[in-house]
């Protein structure tokens, strides 16, 4: 239901996502792994990739919150909020790794968040099966994107690689849940539009 109380709740969630330090209930995936020395070019590459992943998780938070906001089924709302909570851990993992590598988070995260919140809310308004389909396709594309980062990261950067491996596992689980709950297959134009939007974010967050 769209009312002032919901607006306040989502505004508060947005502020927390963007400006509060995210926490992880589970142990960090890279806990106990040695922080192998990287040369400057390797550190710069790893930091840029992890910054992209952090911005991607900012988008995921916003998407799930927007989808939960407009979802019609209360059970689906609960599932989406649960997925958002789990994605919060990804924020914690990627943020810490970016800072360990001596770099910064994307300055455009407020824009990514607002943009993704609007998309998530719109997908929810289309109906629950499309809402779930959007969730499933998002997780599929994120998984492909993360696999690509594994190929680009320095082999000896075991800490970043451990974080990404766990993220891939979590994203696959969320996608499976969406499909099991009846997510509809999105059309090719919609899937391509999602890919184009993701490319804009990843290419920009690499530098800014």
Walk me through what this model shows:
By secondary structure, this protein is mostly helical. It has a single domain, classed as Ferritin, CATH 1.20.1260.10. Helix content is 75%, strand content 0%.
Key attributes of the depicted protein:
208 residues, mainly alpha, 7 helices
Poorly predicted runs of 5 or more residues: none
Helical segment count: 7
CATH top level label = Mainly Alpha
Q: Considering DSSP H and I runs of 4 or more, what fraction of the residues is helical? A: over 70%
How would you sum up the global shape? Answer: globular
Give the CATH architecture. Answer: Up-down Bundle
Kindly state the mean pLDDT as a whole number? 86
- In CATH terms, the superfamily is Ferritin, core subunit, four-helix bundle
Based on CA atoms alone, the radius of gyration comes out at: 17 Å
| N/C terminus separation | 36 Å
Proportion of residues in extended strands: under 5%
Largest sheet: none
Number of strands: 0
Provide a brief overview of the structure.
75% of the residues lie in helices and 0% in strands.
Give the helix/strand layout.
Layout (H helix, E strand, L loop, with lengths): L3 H16 L20 H31 L3 H27 L8 H17 L2 H25 L5 H23 L7 H18 L3
Helix pairs in contact: 1-2, 2-3, 2-4, 2-5, 2-7, 3-6, 4-5, 5-6
